[in-house]
Amino acid sequence: MALETVKAEYIEDYKIRLEFSDNTERVVDFKPFLEQSKNPMTTKYLDKEEFRKFKIEYGDLTWNDYELCFPTIDLYDDNILKSVSHAA
User: What pLDDT is recorded for position 51?
Assistant: First the structure.
């Protein structure tokens, strides 16, 4: 069975508590990623109203019809900063 994000709950600031299909839970802080990005399509999520509009689609954590999305394994490993070069 592939690892999927099954639950996402906004905590505070830019932190989201995630639960995965293997019952592991993580709190991921997206602020460093968002602050380091140079892409306006990404930095717009520094607006907390926009940031809080995430949802889970087909096991992925997404924003605005996949405008922003992270590989599940990077969320699981709390390693989203490696994606900055792709979003910049």
Answer: 98
